[in-house]
Every structure is written in structure tokens, then in C-alpha cells.
Amino acid sequence: MSTTLGVHTVTFASATADENFSTVDLRNYDGHKDEVNCCAFSPDMEILVTGSDDGRVRVWNAVTGHMVCKLKGHEGAIKSVAITTDSKYFASAAFDGKVIIWRTRDAEIVHILSGHCRSVEAITFSPDCQMLCSGSWDNTAIVWNVERGIAVYIMNGHRNMVQCCAFSYDMKYLATGSWDHTVRIWPLHHDKDSDIVKVLTGHTSNVHSVAFSRQGMLGSASWDKTVRLWNPRNGHLLHILKGHDGWVQAVTFSTDSTQVASSSDDETVRLWDIVSGECIKVMEAKTERAHFCTFTSGGALVACGAAPVTAPIPVKTSGP
Q1: What CA–CA distance (Å, rounded) separates 74 from 95?
Q2: 230 pLDDT above the threshold of 80
Q3: CB of 285 within 8 A of CB of 21?
Q4: From CA 174, how far away is CA 210, in angstroms rounded?
């Protein structure tokens, strides 16, 4: 696998890996006029949404690399973007404290969600497309009803900015990660076994990414250079994945829930076995920072970010 990733330019690059995680594609998406902060792919990998410090949301045909539209709705930098699993809607969050839900087929605004009093740093849609969660510098997370555009839950408890959020696939839990170094697991359906908010401690720096596997495991990635795997039902720590030499920016699970991938400022994407906690592949390229990584429905691994376009170097695959 090879990627050209980073933090500071108008060029967006992505690389895709096949089932053997060898390089098969590298695409550049040019157009933003300032730092690219975030991206999201549709499940079929045909739509790409990006957000930048230039205050614009751009929608791309991820297959051809052509920009479909450039959207202005926020005042200030775009901090996070997301797409529903049915690709009907996408959303953007910004420094202006607002979340905008857009309709994909015509790029029209459906709702402007106002509830946070500071910059919104993270958004994610629920697997059933009915809810959206937003995390903010105001230390709160808000769960919104997508169709009605109203707040359903306001999560208070973090002592610093909420940097990331994720819904479990069974819709029982919402996980949030914060600059207070904790992960919180919030029950979405109250019952006697799961009506207590769990606070997961152990990270020694900002928690930058959280993700659930389809089998229910929770992963958290931190600027302490580790990934932690948790049982969200009881809050027990299962593994601490060590090996990165830089801040870990993203974590994601394979579709069969047997592997977890993490991307880092150390210019690598690492692949881990979730049973043993062992690193089984290290994928390197000439990058500065990987904002995002995900597995496709077909099992391919995609990593991407924003960077000057440079020729990819040969991949080095090794053990931990």
C-alpha cells in the first residue's frame, strides 16, 4: 500500500490496497485553497466529500477524480464531514459552531443544526441513518434526529473538547473521545444492563478517533501513540496496541472484525490482529500525516489525507 498524506496543502491524495495490501491506486483531488482538514467516502467509494480551512465543502466523483460541486454554507474552517450509509445525505461541521446536513442528489441544504456554542470538531451518522452525533470545543456531544433536524440527546461530562464520536452497529452505544484523555460510552437505549455511562481511562493524551467493529468491539486512537481495544459492554480493556512513533490519527475495523487498522503521523498505516493484539503489517509511504483510514465493503484498505503531491515510494511491509 502507498499513500501521499499530510496536513498543509490544497492537494488531496488517496491510495487503495487490494486483499494483499499492495498498491493498486493513487488519486489526487486538487482544488481547495487552504489546508484540508477532513474527508469522508460513501460506502461504495464513489463519492468523496472534503472540507478545508478555506470554508468550502467539496464533493468529488471519487472514481474519476472530478469535482462535482463546491459548497459554501459555513463561516469559517470546515472541521469534519460525514456521509450516511445510504448516501442520501452528507453533513459538514465547522468552526462557526454549526452542522449542516446536505441532500446528496442536488447538494441542497436540508437542515442547519445550531446547538453548540463553540467550534464543532467531529460528526458521524448512525448506521441506520436516523441520527447524527456532533462533538465540540464546548465539551459536549449532541445527538440529532436527521429527518427532523432537532436535538435528541445532549451529552455532558467531558472536561475538554470532544474530538471524535461513533455509533455502535447495533445502535446500543455512542462512544466519544476527548482531549480530557478519556473515552465515554453512552447508552442510547435505557435498560437495566446498559443505562450507565462508562468512562474509559488509560490514554495519556488526546483521544483523536474512536470506532466500533461490527461484532461490538471498540477501538480508540490517541496522540499518546497507542490504540486501545475495549469491550464496550463492561468497559474492560482488551489490548494496548503499541508500535506507532507519532500521533495516531485514525482507527478502523475490517468488515469481518478480525483486524484493526490505524494511521499515524509517523507516516505509516499499521494493521493489527484483534485477537492477539499483534501488528501483522506496517505500510509506509512518503507521507506526513494520515487523516483517515477505512476498509471498503470488499475488504480493501483505504488511507488518505491532504498533502503536496509527490511520487509514492515503494511500500515496506514488515512485522511490528
Answers
A1: 8
A2: yes
A3: no
A4: 10
The least confident of 63-67, 103-107, 249-253 is 63-67
Distance (Å, whole) CA 267 – CA 10:
19
Strands 36-41 and 47-52: antiparallel
HSE at residue 118, side-chain half, CA atoms within 13 A, is 12
- Within 10 A of 2 (CB to CB), how many other CB atoms are there? 23
Q: How confident is the model at residue 6 (pLDDT cuts 50, 70, 90)?
A: very low
Contact 175, 232 (CB under 8 A): yes
Taking 80 as the threshold, does the pLDDT of residue 174 lie above it? yes
Distances (CA, A) of 153 to 40, 247, 285: 24, 31, 41
91-105, 194-208, 213-227: which has the minimum mean pLDDT? Answer: 194-208
CA dihedral of residues 181, 4, 60, 72 (deg, nearest 10): 50
Kindly tell me the sign of the dihedral angle through the C-alpha atoms of 239, 245, 250, 252.
negative
Residue with cell 442520501: 88
Cα separations (Å) of 121 from 77, 79, 145, 171, 182? 10, 5, 19, 22, 16
pLDDT of 13 > 50? The answer is: no
Q: CA-to-CA distance for 147 and 173, rounded, in angstroms?
A: 20
The reported pTM is 0.88
> pLDDT of 292-319, one tens digit each?
888 887 777 777 765 554 433 333 333 4
Q: Nearest-5° angle of CA 32, CA 131, CA 300?
A: 55
Distance from C-alpha of 317 to C-alpha of 320, rounded to nearest angstrom: 10
Residue with cell 483517515: 292
Evaluate if residue 202 carries a pLDDT over 50.
Answer: yes
Distance CA 212, CA 215 (A): 8
Instruction: Count CB atoms within 10 A of the CB of residue 57.
Output: 26
